[in-house]
Amino acid sequence: MDLADFFANYGLIILLVLLLVFMFWSSRRRMQKQKLEMEAKARQTVPGAEVLLQGGLYGTIVEYDADDLDKPARVEIAPGVEIKVHSQAILRIVNATEDTVTEDDFIEAEETEAEYVAGVADGDVTSISDDQKRARDADGEPTDKPQA
After folding, report:
1. SMART domains in the record, alphabetically (predicted)?
2. What are phi and psi for residue 98, nearest 5 degrees?
3. Domain chopping of the chain, boundaries
4. With a cut of 70, which residues of the chain have pLDDT below it?
């Protein structure tokens, strides 16, 4: 029996065994990587950390129990607005470099809205098109931007 006959008879079996070993090795490696990522996420998931939830909401963790994952986490999504979510609904910790909405953004938006409503109440602005007509740039030329 020469080498060609050996591979003709047992080559497919050897190939299948090698494929099974590779699949086992790669899945084990992937599981270890996921475990390390979950441990890193658990270390970073502390009250005060900004998070992204699976529903696409950004918020700040108020309460989180890493030991009991069945206990809901409390996340503040706006100043004074807290929601309870399943602890596994926290998709990831948001890096400080990412652009997120802050409390100052909410205050600024409320002030802008209040100024506009005050203009409407005083009769200065009767419609959005009137607001656009009154808007002027630094040179006094009309612009198409509404006045804030």
Report:
1. YajC
2. -75, 150
3. 1-44, 46-97, 102-148
4. 1, 95-114, 116-148
Burial 15-34 (b: 16+ CB within 10 A, else e): eeeeeeeeeeeeeeeeeeee
Place of tokens 């020469």: 2
- Residue 60: C-alpha distances to residues 73, 79, 127, 136 (Å): 11, 10, 38, 39
Strand, coil or helix: what is 41? Answer: helix
**What pLDDT sits at residue 7?**
84
Q: What is the pLDDT of residue 66?
A: 81
Q: CA angle, 91 as apex, 88 and 97 as ends, to 5°?
A: 145
State both tokens at 125: 């602005």
pTM (2 decimals)? 0.46
Query: Which CATH number describes the domain made up of 46-97?
Result: 2.30.30
Backbone angles phi and psi of 125, in degrees to 5 = -125, 125
